[in-house]
Amino acid sequence: MRVTNFKKINNIIVIFSVLVLVGCYSGKEKREIITEGTFLYTEEIRHAEGFSIDYYKEFTKVTINNPWGNDHKPYAEYYIYKSGDNKNRVLEKGKYAFYAPLSSLIVNTFSYFEFLNLLNELETVTGVTDGFRIYNPSILGKIERGLVKDLGDPFNPNIENTIELNPGAVINSAYAQNDSYSERLLMTGIPVIYSLEWMEETPLARAEWIKMIAAFFDKGDIASHIFDDIENRYTDVKKKVEGVGKRKSVLAGDNFQGTWYLPGGESFNAALFRDAGLHYVYENNYQRGSIGLDIESVLTQFANTDIWLGCEASSYNQLINKDSKYRLLGPVNKRQVFNNHNRTTTSGGNDYFESAIANPDLLLSDMVKAAYPELMSNYSYSYIKPLN
Amino acid sequence: MLKMEDQKLKNKTTIFLILIFLLIVAFIGDIFTGNATISIKEAWSALFGSSGNVIVDEIIRNYRLPKALTAVLAGAALSVSGLLMQTLFRNPLAGPDVLGVSAGAGLGVALLTMFSGTALYPFIQIMGNMGQVVAAIAGATLVLLLILVVSSRIKDSITILVLGMIFGYVASSLITILQSFADPDSLKVFVTWTFGSLGDVTLDEMPILATIVLSGILLTIILQKTLNSLLLGESYALSAGLNIKRARIIIITIAAVITGSVTAFTGPIAFVGVVIPHFARAFFGTVNHRTILPATILMGSILMLICDIVSQIPITNRTLPINAVTAMFGAPMIIWIVLKRKKL
After folding, report:
1. Checking DSSP bridges between strand A169-173 and strand A149-150, what pairing results, if any?
2. What's the rounded Cα separation, in Å, for the pair A30 and A100?
């Protein structure tokens, strides 16, 4: 059929021209900005693997590593200058020029509020997403007074309001998938600071990302000191459980639509269990994400566990009413169940998802107190609390 | 006799002029509407020169203008595609997605989202923003090829319609399977795509979309006579000398290509394609494609622009996805048509 062939060729031409256009896609115009310089030294990063900071005479370079590609090309490179025309810009895709200190910021991830707070730069936040789910009282107050704009859905923030705010940068979590919001920002010339702190597997590694954001404010030294303190406090708590004889066993996660998601052995939570001196059935598992188990396996494997962290209920009654099978779990019988709702707001905000990242020592203390209360008699729970 | 036809022609011309006027008004209205505080004067000067404010220029020229253009193109394309489907299958409920092409596009995007975190990452990253477009077109093309293979062997149009719907269901269930394996973030990325969005096509990409849509519409205009004869039934069309199989293939291909391309750029947008042909027929009181086709094109663009204006209204800080608005407009419209009109 001649006409059919024509249509098919038409299709092929369309797809081909699409690909050609993609190939011709060029980023923003390059300006006269130097990206080569005299190397001085590299910042000491002891735990985090997702970023590195190199100091040059002319600028500071922050590199965000790419965990997905196998060619070792970085996910993003930031060149931070101390002086210049003060217009943060996109040099080309993946390369950005910044002038420290950042003066306005849209934050599209909850993890950075506490980092900014510790660095005394929370004032620079001009926009957030998912405003109703924020815990940080200072930000909430500013949203109410109209000083901080709520841009809506974190996966689909309001473009016009973003452009209108004209921020110095937007902090966005980085994903493997192409993110149309980031693409739009880059096209508009607003640089995006990508964060991969959520991919780090240990609490100290995640907390160390404070150094990453500090570079944009030229506060590298301050961040270093803050992190040293955090690390010391964490190690102090960790030392407390070294003398423990018999380790308590732990269950985590909860039932979600018939599947129970447990932390993998190489996950963030598993690292906390280890440091808290807890025994975990899957501690030798290789997974960095979650293990999805069916209810029956959970009930059999955790029938004699000592404590349960991260339950979704607030009281034992509520738990049993939700599903009477929970009664078969060890921690429920022993009344040793805890949830993460100690610091929450009525509209769904939970500090566990905000400041906990900068306070790994408190996270660890919470766990140790839950498991071995006698070791933490002078400490009260920060993020978790026992069910009533 | 001549006087009545004269009168009819005058009426038609008036209505068309009104429609063209409405299109221009809706287009400009869409550019003036948005969440940023921009006065009409600023918006006007940004369009034709500079408003003096770089940010306003950016929003108007690089966001609202392409969005309005996309609305015009998508509205026209989907409505024409719906009209083609309704004529070919003589089914008033047929729409652009009746052949499963939109579901195929969705499957392409779901696969892309699913595989982004794997070893295919470098290949996917090169395409950048166009990755989604390419994946959607690939998925739509696959379904189209399946339909074409099937339709070359089947005599009965209704069978093709049913098979197209089945292909659509299969694609949807594959998407569900992919979603069940996905992590929450990939899931949210994909679901956000299914909300539909008119604002993602840049001025650079606009020529591609425009070329495809306008070519498809042009071909449809050329096919007017064929479409009219199909309306009278396939046996009549056969006796009038029409090659049914060939006509079917051409019509299906045009509809699939323009639907697939629009879906690739905007995500799936429902209802517009089904509703507008009915409205065109109702307003002009005829089923003759010489009148209905331009009417469908104009009305489709106008409706999409109106839906876009409505979707900008902020509701607790979020704006409605375009799909929700077209459904809210489309559903009552369909009910009204079904109740008011007897048979179209």
Report:
1. unpaired
2. 20
Is B131 part of the contact surface with chain A (CB cutoff 8 Å)?
A: yes
Does B137 reach chain A within 8 Å, measured CB to CB? yes
pTM of the model: 0.84
Q: Is the predicted ipTM greater than 0.90, yes or no?
A: no
Task: Set out the domains of chain B in order of their start, with CATH numbers.
Answer: 2-340 (1.10.3470.10)
Residue A8: other Cβ atoms inside 10 A: 16
Nearest-neighbour CA in chain B from A24: distance (Å) = 11
Cα A109 to Cα A215, A345, B35: the distances in Å are 18, 18, 22
DSSP H helical segments within chain B, as ranges?
Answer: 2-32, 40-48, 54-59, 65-89, 101-115, 121-127, 130-153, 157-181, 184-194, 206-222, 224-231, 234-239, 244-266, 272-284, 289-311, 322-340
On the question of a cis peptide bond just before residue A101, with omega within 30 degrees of 0, the verdict is: yes
What contacts A48, CB < 8 A, 6 or more positions away? A197, A200, A205, A206, A208, A209, A211, A212
Q: Is A71 exposed, middle or buried (0-12, 13-18, 19+ CB in 10 A)?
A: exposed
- Each residue of A223-243: b (16+ CB within 10 Å) or e? bbebbeebbebbeebbebbee
Strand ranges across the sheet with A385-386: A278-280, A248-252, A307-311, A337-339, A385-386
What is the percent of chain A where pLDDT is above 90? 64
Task: Identify all chain A residues contacting B131, using CB atoms and an 8 Å cutoff.
Answer: 178
Torsion sign over Cα A313, A316, A320, A326: positive
Q: How far apart are CA B49 and CA B193, in angstroms?
A: 34
What is the rounded distance in angstroms from the CA atom of residue B250 to the CA atom of residue B319? 39
| Interchain contact B192–A (C-beta under 8 A) | yes
Reported as a single tens digit per residue, the pLDDT across A276-301 is: 999 999 999 888 888 888 888 998 99
Ranges A115-124, A367-376, B99-108, B226-235: which has the least confidence? B226-235
Q: Is the pLDDT of residue A109 over 70?
A: yes
Are B30 and B66 within 8 A, CB to CB?
A: no
Identity (one letter) of the amino acid at A152? G
Interface touch B202/A187, C-beta < 8 Å: yes
A7 and B250 within 8 Å at the Cβ level: the answer is yes
Residue B221's region, left for phi above 0, alpha for psi from -120 to 50, else beta, is: alpha
Q: Do A155 and B188 touch (CB under 8 A)?
A: yes
Of A159-163, A343-347, B45-49, which range is least confident? B45-49
Region for A258 from its dihedrals, namely left if φ exceeds 0, alpha if ψ lies in -120 to 50, beta otherwise? left
Domains delineated in chain A: 26-231 (3.40.50.1980), 245-386 (3.40.50.1980)
B55 touches chain A (CB under 8 A): yes
